[in-house]
C-alpha cells in the first residue's frame, strides 16, 4: 500500500517534519508571570511523544499588555528563554519539530480564563502590574460593547510594537524553536488591524485593505529580520471573520506576505465578534478546510488546515485532495495526545510503532503481533474476539 500522505515528510526551508500532523497552538493558561512551568514541559512533551511532526506551543505574548489571561506565556524578555528552551529540548528529543506562536491579545487582553467565564478581569491587589496591562487596539472600540474600552494606539507607538514581535522572534530562535507562527487570527491585535470591524483608523494603518494589512506586513518583515532565513514562518489568519474580512482579503494578504518570507498560511476563522472561535455555534467536521483549499489555490502558498479534523481518513482525504499541506489538530489531541500514533495504525502506516518512544513501541508492537486484528481503541469490542 502506498504510504499515506499524512505520514510522509514535509520539507519547509531547512526543516523536515517527519509527518504532516501538527499540534495546533493551544493556550495552557498555566504560565507563572509569563514563565513556562513543568506543565508546559509535560504538555508539549506528551504531544511530541505521541508522534506529531510539529508541536506548536501556544500564543506567547510579545509584550505584557498582550496577555489574554493571568496564565499566558511571555516572550517579551530574555528571561523567558531558558524555560522555553527546556520544552524545545524535550520536543526535539522525541523527534518532533518545536514551534511557537507569537501573539498579542489587543483589546481581548486581561480576561478570566475560559472556564472562569472568560469575562474582563477586575483590578485586584493580586495583579500588581495592572497599570502595565493596558488594553490597546487600532481603534477605541469595545467588542462586545459592554467590554472595557481599549485605548487606540497612536501612530508613533506602532513601530515599537512591531519591533516587539521582531525581538520575540529573536528570542524564539535563541530558545531553539524551528517553526514560528504569527497569530493574525481570532480577533486579537493583528486581526483587529486587519478587520474593518475593529479598525476605524484614518491614518496609513486604516481605511483601505492595504492600509489595514500594513501592521501585519510590517510584523512579518520585523520577524523575518530576526528569524533565520533557513527556518519556516507561518501566519495564522481568520480567513473569514464574518465582520468584513473574508477569503478575498485573506488571499490578497497571503500574496503580499509570501514574497516577504511567510511559508504557510494556517487557515482558521472567527473570533472578531466576541464569540470564541471554538464556540462559534453548529459547525461540522473540517469546517475550515475550504479556507485552506482556497488560499492554497488562489494565493499559491502552502496551507495548514485546522478545525474539527478528527479522523485519520478525514485528515488523509484533505491532503489527497490537495486542499492543504499540513493538518493541525487541537481538541482531538486533548482527547487523545497519541492521536498521531493511533492515526498511523488506522492508516497502516507504522507497523513498528516507530512514532512513539521505544519503551512504548516495544510493547505495542509485541501486542499487535500476538493478537491479530486487534482493535486498538476503547470503542467496540470485536464480536469475534
Ligand atoms: C485549549 C485551547 C487553547 C487554544 N489556544 C490557541 C492559541 O494559543 N492560539 C491559537 O491560534 N488558537 C488557539 N486555539 C484554537 C486551536 O488552535 C484550533 O484552531 C481550534 O481549537 C480548532 O481546532 P480543533 O477543532 O482541532 O480544536 C485554542 C484551542 C483550544 C481548545
Automatic annotation (TrEMBL):
<feature type="domain" description="NADH:flavin oxidoreductase/NADH oxidase N-terminal">
    <location>
        <begin position="6"/>
        <end position="347"/>
    </location>
</feature>
<keyword id="KW-0285">Flavoprotein</keyword>
<dbReference type="Pfam" id="PF00724">
    <property type="entry name" value="Oxidored_FMN"/>
</dbReference>
<keyword id="KW-0288">FMN</keyword>
<keyword id="KW-0521">NADP</keyword>
<dbReference type="InterPro" id="IPR013785">
    <property type="entry name" value="Aldolase_TIM"/>
</dbReference>
<protein>
    <submittedName>
        <fullName>NADH:flavin oxidoreductase/NADH oxidase</fullName>
    </submittedName>
</protein>
<dbReference type="InterPro" id="IPR044152">
    <property type="entry name" value="YqjM-like"/>
</dbReference>
<keyword id="KW-0560">Oxidoreductase</keyword>
<dbReference type="InterPro" id="IPR001155">
    <property type="entry name" value="OxRdtase_FMN_N"/>
</dbReference>
